Amino acid sequence: MSPDDNRATHNDGSRRDDPAPVYPAGFDPDYEAKTPGMNPRKHLSRVEWEFVCTLLALRCAVWTASPAANPKTEFKRPLKWQQITPDYSHHRLYSFQRGDALKLNTGTVVGTIDVDPRNGGDIDSVRGLLTDLKVRHFAEVKSPSGGRHFYVAGHPLLMTLHNPDGYPGVDILGNGACCYLPGTLRPKHDRKGYEILFNDLDALRTEGDPEGAEHLAQWVADQKTSGTGFFADGLGDAPLWSGREHSDREKAYLAKVLTNTSGELANSLVGERNNSLFIKALKCGSLISGAGLDDQRAAEALKDGADRCNLTQDDGEACVWATIGSGLAIGMGNPRGFPQSPGTGCDAFWEQTDTLRHIRDYAWARRVAPWAVLGVELCRIICTVPPMVRIHPYVGDVASLNLYVGLVGESGEGKGGAMIRTCG
């Protein structure tokens, strides 16, 4: 074989001058004429090219990345790669040259499960997980490190999850993530590529797996929820909202929830933003089903917070809406009612005597905290008791009646108001 023949042969034994492959159904080969002089097929083997063509037929976003100057970085991602659309894929693909990276935006259409044995990933256990979840995988690719990429049906609510509980070395690549495609040679793996072991992606286009996609999205959401402590504070035990009209106090509470949700998300730190968004969505969802919070306003507040902390800009709209949708859905399945009136504690306590009811009602009427008013009132009463009045020495010696009360709160929260309303 001549040196020229050697350069014209791909890893799978096919040659660059092989006849053009049959395009998958639904793929328009005429787009090739739109960029004359450029042809990615000459840099890809037949099976690699057909793999990519099928993803394009599925309306997936496929893009290229050129080698980076720093070998540790490997490739330079284009700016705002999360926002690359399927329509832009053709333009990006036709700039591909051998040595570039081919990448797929995962999420709504196709999800990828990346198993890395070097970090503890167990390929067989992931196969078992997919079987248990009744998730069909439509392609299997061997990575340069000996791991696996399982290609499954995507879902609008499929979130990205790293190292699920019990599955180290496993990444579920959903919305906001990307994966390397066959045809990419990895510099850090001695320029080894990705080997296609099984490819039935065309069945994903013709048959799909909606139930499996739903199961996987729900499993990922449950995994993320279990690490948030969402159920630790008593959420999820309220009855469903009756639909009655909200009181003024309830309207004010829900409005405050939305304001705080957006504001606190806006201040989220990089690295914590997506998790914060998910937790906020869980809590909003629980109030939608348990307290009648408007779902549209909740989604808008969550999206506004994601925009303000630049999460949408960095991870893309699909990733943000997947996180919001999953959090709201799980939260709505665990309704949370209104908290007891601010500062009231257990209603049974205030209903024990007419005096306690009067203190509570008076505090509400004067728009101050009942517990603060009670504490100030007890101090005022103690001050009227002569010092010779003492407690019988049930334990130890006799003791005078002493009481210390500290009102704690930020400026403007009513500490002084409670004292003024009580002591006049």
Task: Please give the structural blueprint.
Elements: H1 3-7, H2 46-57, E1 62-67, E2 75-76, H3 86-93, E3 101-105, E4 110-115, H4 123-133, E5 137-142, E6 148-153, E7 161-162, E8 170-173, E9 178-180, E10 195-199, H5 201-206, H6 210-226, H7 248-266, H8 273-291, H9 295-308, H10 311-315, H11 317-332, H12 347-350, H13 354-365, H14 370-384, E11 390-391, E12 399-400, H15 415-423
Antiparallel strand pairs: 1-2, 1-3, 3-9, 4-6, 4-8, 5-6, 5-10, 7-8, 11-12
Helix pairs in contact: 7-8, 7-9, 8-9, 8-11, 9-11, 13-14, 14-15
Description:
It is a single chain. The protein is an alpha+beta fold. Helix content is 41%, strand content 12%. Strands 7-8-4-6-5-10 form a six-stranded antiparallel β-sheet, sandwiched between helices. Strand 7 (161-162) and strand 8 (170-173) form a beta hairpin. The radius of gyration is 31 Å and the shape is elongated. Residues 1-28 and 33-38 have low confidence and may be disordered.
